[in-house]
Design goal:
This protein is an alpha/beta fold. It has two domains: 261 residues, P-loop containing nucleotide triphosphate hydrolases (Rossmann fold), CATH 3.40.50.300; 124 residues, no CATH class. 43% of the residues lie in helices and 15% in strands. A hairpin with a 2-residue loop joins β8 and β9. The longest helix is centred in the middle third of the chain and has 25 residues. It is globular. Bound molecules: guanosine-5'-diphosphate and magnesium ion (MG). It comes from Rheinheimera salexigens.
Length: 460
């Protein structure tokens, strides 16, 4: 893009922001939490699902003031575009499948048109517009943000504390042994690469272990455009090794700094530093499936990530010069894996999981809400008769394409103790998407509440 085009685009965005007609929505969540499905659903609901019966809680639609949404032409052809059409195609296949997992970042911008309900705008304009910007990225990269608050030595200490947890210890033994035998004076390319490969294998093993969420650095798992870059030669030495000023430790420290400066900081500046509103998606049900350690690590990962964002009320000045997130929605995703009467407990569980960050004072200045949602509902709910009683159940198709009707179990409203997990196994099954034809509204749970919370006040 030429400098002229760049300035034009920036000034357009600036004037839209000045007029308060532009929103950057941050979709935040660990890998597998449902970001891609959420964005796909959000775009589909806003472009094709605007029927009052389908989005009853979204006021602008319910009041028949919504005139439609449109995906904008990408201004910069070099910027990866969020593949919404391809994702919808996956859902239309027979049998339908979920969109593939995300390997790089992409973005999409939408223009939403509506009739203002009140105020000067309602009197002067027959239609108003709101621009919405959304970015998708691999969740693995999100866990890099906490690295900005640590130096290399601290990262090594952090990593080895984590690897010594009972559920991670066994897998780390070989890598620990490998490190103990290293010649710390050898900071050569070959030595670095060899140890990085060993660490990458460990990281991949953790990544494939359900409930091991905190895997850093994210680019070793999903390198994106950085495959082969020297700063990706990075691994945590044992804390006592990192403290020595050896050739290897110095080299790793350099790579760590360069990774923070050249990868994480620009990623943060580009995609997270200027968010207006944020949805944080958390897959609590699969963490319950994977037990106590998984719940603990999920909580730790969320707390670390949320420290990276700035929250506060939005005023014209802060919107323009010191953007802060003014509204945050905590959403327990994939709530369609549980029966509807369990959703209340699910949102209480999420609230408890986030107890610490919610208590932080910088957080309280934003408007927050917690709810259980399903961006793309994959089950139908109903009742079966059991012992003369109507028992709630859901019906869906397992990933092995078996039709099932069942009660998935109760969702605990608080984080269960380790002892409880020893005696009780949760089993919230993953499901295939429901068959869906193009231009039909995409089935969901509470996406209308999400839209109302995120956009409702901007479309009054
Ligand atoms: N039942 C159900 N499953 C979902 C939903 N959203 C995501 N999933 C499942 O979770 C997986 C990961 O979702 P995805 O959006 O790719 O997560 P991301 O890594 O955060 O982008 C999908 O492949 C689906 O199996 C939902 O609303 N309902
Ligand atoms: Mg994704």
């Amino acid at each position: 893009m030429s400098l002229y085009q760049k300035i034009r685009q920036q000034s357009r965005e600036f004037s839209q922001r000045t007029l308060d007609r532009h929103l950057r929505l941050g979709v935040t969540g660990l890998s597998g939490s449902g970001k891609t499905a959420f964005i796909t659903s959000l775009v589909q609901q806003l472009t094709h699902g605007d029927l009052p019966a389908h989005l009853p809680f979204f006021a602008v639609v319910r009041e028949k003031r919504y005139l439609g949404g449109q995906v904008n032409q990408q201004q910069r052809l070099s910027v990866p575009r969020f593949p919404v059409e391809q994702n919808l195609q996956h859902l239309q296949q027979q049998p339908p499948v979920w969109p593939p997992s995300t390997r790089g970042w992409s973005q999409l911008s939408l223009t939403l048109r509506y009739k203002a309900a009140t105020g000067l705008r309602a009197r002067l304009q027959s239609r108003s517009e709101l621009a919405l910007n959304i970015v998708d990225y691999p969740g693995e990269w999100l866990l890099d943000l906490p690295l900005l608050n640590m130096d290399y030595q601290q990262w090594c200490e952090f990593s080895w504390r984590l690897f010594r947890q009972p559920h991670r210890q066994a897998a780390a033994n070989d890598f620990e042994q490998h490190l103990r035998l290293l010649n710390l004076q050898d900071g050569s390319e070959l030595a670095l690469q060899h140890s990085t490969e060993q660490y990458k294998a460990l990281l991949q093993q953790y990544h494939d272990t359900p409930g091991a969420y905190l895997n850093q650095p994210g680019r070793l798992l999903v390198p994106g455009e950085l495959a082969g870059a020297p700063m990706l030669q990075l691994f945590p030495l044992l804390p006592e090794q990192a403290g020595e000023h050896s050739a290897l430790a110095k080299k790793l420290e350099q790579h760590y700094k360069s990774y923070c400066k050249n990868v994480i900081e620009p990623f943060y500046q580009q995609h997270f530093a200027r968010l207006d509103r944020q949805i944080i998606l958390v897959d609590c049900l699969s963490a319950l499936n994977h037990g106590y350690a998984a719940m603990q690590e999920l909580q730790q990962a969320l707390q670390l990530i949320l420290k990276s964002f700035h929250y506060g009320p939005s005023s014209l000045l802060t919107r323009l010069f010191k953007p802060q997130i003014s509204k945050v929605l905590f959403a327990a995703s994939k709530s369609d894996h549980a029966t509807p009467e369990q959703h209340k407990a699910l949102s209480l569980l999420l609230q408890q999981l986030l107890h610490q960050p919610l208590k932080l004072s910088h957080y309280q200045s934003a408007i927050t809400e917690v709810m259980a949602i399903a961006a793309i509902r994959a089950s139908t709910s109903g009742y079966v008769q059991a012992d003369g009683l109507a028992q709630p159940c859901i019906r869906g198709e397992t990933l092995g394409q078996k039709s099932v009707t069942y009660f998935p179990g109760e969702v605990p409203a608080t984080i269960p103790s380790a002892e409880f997990f020893n005696q009780h196994k949760f089993e919230f099954l993953a499901l295939q998407p429901i068959s869906w034809a193009e231009h039909e509204p995409l089935p969901h749970v509470r996406m209308d509440h999400v839209l109302q919370f995120m956009l409702g006040d901007k479309m009054e």
